[in-house]
Specification:
Elements lengths: L1 H7 L4 E6 L2 E6 L12 E2 L28 H16 L6 H20 L18 H18 L12 H11 L9 H15 L11 H11 L7 E3 L6 H17 L5 H13 L1 E5 L2 H13 L7 E3 L6 H7 L10 E4 L6 E3 L17 E3 H12 L6 E7 L1 H4 L4 H10 E8 L14 E8 L2 H39 L2 H27 L6 H10 L16 H28 L3 H37 L5 E4 L3 E3 L5 E5 H14 L1 H4 L1
Length: 642
């Protein structure tokens, strides 16, 4: 229609505008059907010459535009739709490509250039899609060289789609657009495209802000999220410090910028297991003016050497604050991930839930005494009887500062209905921890003295019972007893006549077959001739050996494996019951010690409405704001609440 009207009116130029996307054409000098070769940067001013470049630094009419939140969301959505092409790419693939392009766009805006010089990220007059794609790819390769941690793969979209995306983005300034606008727009955009199977990577803004406000980060503290997803906690921590800078310095001053920007660059750390989502986090932080260089893609639960070798910043006992929403419900299986055995909460287990291991990993990452942890956990950890050991671990390693119960709908619009709570914890000092461990050791030794003899006695009973044999074997012993008794009595008589000590074999068999109270049998041999007595003793000894061999063969043949297995199973059950009682007694005694010695108040609250509903729509009521205010009062005067 624009071309038809332009031609009918003998116009020279046509401009097509769709929201913030604008494309200009030279109509007069080209055939009516041309739509590619006649693209121009912008119609000339006052019928002058068509300029080669539309967007120039520092030139009022040609400078990039600062846009509002809704417009930015629409621009991002148009870019994504262009890349997605109705399903040709998966949403995550499309976003990966968009992230690369945004990366170039941000870097191009930051590039040093004089006023009046053109930006590289734009389409110039009469430029083909091939030419635009070549320039953008050159910019990308330069950026990859300078910042290899962000992207490793090349741009994987065709030149026509790249041309369209550049056209959507070329006129806006991502750097100059307000951080809050970029933050909300980016989160809304991500939320629209990443719900469902990877919705777990996103924590609602209201919950993130609340957790950051509760821990009150300081610009000199090191902040970590070991399951950072799209980087929400890191970005809000940065925003918190940025607002804090405004309390100290003029917002236009160098000191203001340095205060929060150095914090973002040097003190924000993140780990994300999904490589694509890790790139989302880095891109999110780049758009918010950096802070991406300390985000790595890896499993936060692997051994520390692996993390440290990937990035020297990830050391044990290094971080001041951890803010995290770890993945729920997935099983870490010993058969698949052998590192399970390295965790105190994983020893002796065939599998353990990820959120449980994340608790221990966070403890390891935090500084002693001052390290603070804010973590979202499923309520089952706080209530299920089968997870008492996890609760015991928390009490033995942390001071519990606060427990905030979230409503069932907290993660509903991301497809997760699990009931959750937020725990705010302080890592014990080394002295507190050692004192607790010493108490545990004392309790363990005390109970060991009580329960170990019980287990030893049961093991002895089992060994004796199995040695005596099955009922059939016991009956066989009774059958053989008279025969053994007769031979043993003869040997004893001969030994006495010869003043000889019975052999160990004779002593053993007599103890086994003849009781002390048994009736003496008639002695067959009453010989006084020593030579004859020795000959007969030898014969009787040979008969005893043959009888024992015969008995052993018969005893073995009469064995009853089913009976022996049943005996072992019965005693295992008895021993396991003692061990379980021992373990329960240990745990109860430790809990009692903790109750008596960790006498500090805990702030607890229930949030019923949290600023959004089950569908994600805004709710004017947010209990989290009130809870945060009350927590401040509590920390100032906990006795008042008691």
């Amino acid at each position: 229609m624009a071309f038809g009207n332009c031609n009918s009116l003998s116009g020279h130029y046509a401009v097509v505008v769709a929201g913030n996307t604008r494309r200009s054409f030279d109509v007069k000098e080209y055939k009516p059907g041309e739509r590619t070769q006649n693209i121009i940067a912008d119609p000339p001013v006052a019928y002058g010459k068509v300029e080669e470049w539309r967007y120039l630094k520092g030139v009022p009419r040609s400078e990039l535009s600062v846009i509002e939140r809704g417009d930015l969301i629409r621009v991002l959505e148009k870019c994504h739709d262009t890349l997605w092409q109705g399903g040709k790419f998966a949403p995550t693939q499309a976003f990966d490509e968009l992230a690369k392009i945004l990366f170039i766009k941000v870097r191009d805006e930051k590039k040093a250039r004089r006023d009046g010089e053109p930006y590289d990220f734009q389409i110039k007059t009469h430029e083909s899609s091939e030419s635009v794609a070549n320039r953008i790819n050159t910019l990308y390769q330069e950026a990859k060289t300078q910042d290899p941690e962000v992207f490793t793969e090349d741009i994987e979209i065709d030149e026509n789609r790249l041309f369209s995306v550049v056209n959507h983005l070329q006129g806006i300034s991502l750097n100059q657009t307000d951080l809050d606008v970029k933050g909300v727009a980016f989160e809304r955009f991500l939320g629209n495209f990443f719900k469902g199977e990877i919705g777990q990577f996103f924590t609602p803004r209201e919950v993130v802000e609340f957790m950051v406000d509760m821990v009150t980060p300081h610009h000199e503290e090191l902040i970590l999220d070991p399951a950072c997803g799209s980087g929400g906690f890191l970005l809000h921590a940065m925003d918190y410090i940025r607002k804090q800078a405004s309390d100290y310095y003029d917002e236009e001053s160098r000191e203001h910028y340095t205060h929060w920007h150095d914090f973002a660059k040097d003190r924000l750390f993140g780990i994300e297991v999904n490589d694509s989502i890790a790139r989302v986090a880095k891109m999110n932080m780049i758009i918010h003016d950096d802070g991406h260089s300390n985000v790595i893609s890896n499993d936060a639960l692997v051994d520390f050497d692996t993390l440290y070798n990937q990035h020297r910043g990830f050391e044990k006992e290094r971080f001041d604050v951890i803010l995290t929403n770890p993945p729920f419900g997935a099983d870490v299986k010993q058969a698949e991930l052998p590192y399970l055995e390295n965790y105190e909460l994983g020893k002796g287990k065939t599998s353990r839930k990820t959120e449980i291991l994340f608790l221990e990993r966070c403890f390891d990452f935090l500084k002693w005494e001052t390290g603070k942890l804010a973590i979202i956990l499923p309520d089952g950890i706080l209530t299920n009887s089968s997870l008492q050991d996890v609760r015991d671990y928390i009490e033995r390693h942390f001071q519990i500062l606060a427990v905030i119960s979230l409503p069932q709908i907290a993660f509903s619009h991301f497809g997760a209905g699990v009931k959750t709570s937020i725990l705010f914890l302080r890592k014990f000092s080394e002295q507190e921890y050692e004192r607790c461990q010493a108490a545990i050791n004392r309790i363990t030794e005390k109970n060991k003295a009580i329960y170990t003899p019980q287990i030893v006695a049961l093991e002895d009973e089992r060994r004796t019972l199995i040695a005596e044999g099955s009922p059939e074997q016991i009956a066989m012993k009774e059958t053989y007893r008279p025969r053994f008794k007769a031979v043993l009595d003869n040997i004893e008589s001969l030994n006495r006549g010869l003043s000889k000590t019975p052999s160990k074999t004779v002593q053993r068999l007599r103890a086994f077959f003849i009781s002390e109270t048994g009736e003496p049998s008639a002695v067959e041999f009453q010989l006084s001739d020593p030579r004859t007595a020795r000959t007969e003793l030898k014969a009787q000894t040979s008969e005893l050996n043959a009888l024992e061999k015969e008995y052993k063969a018969a005893f073995k043949a009469a064995a009853d494996p089913q009976w022996e297995s049943q005996v072992k199973a019965e005693y295992k059950e008895k021993i396991d019951a003692v061990k379980e009682e021992w373990e329960d007694k240990n745990a109860e005694d430790v809990r009692e010690w903790v109750r008596e010695n960790a006498n500090h108040p805990i702030f607890m609250a229930i949030a019923e409405r949290i600023g959004y509903d089950a569908t994600g729509r805004k709710d004017p009521v947010n209990d989290l704001d009130t809870i945060c205010e009350e927590y401040r009062k509590f920390t100032e005067n906990p006795d008042f609440f008691g």
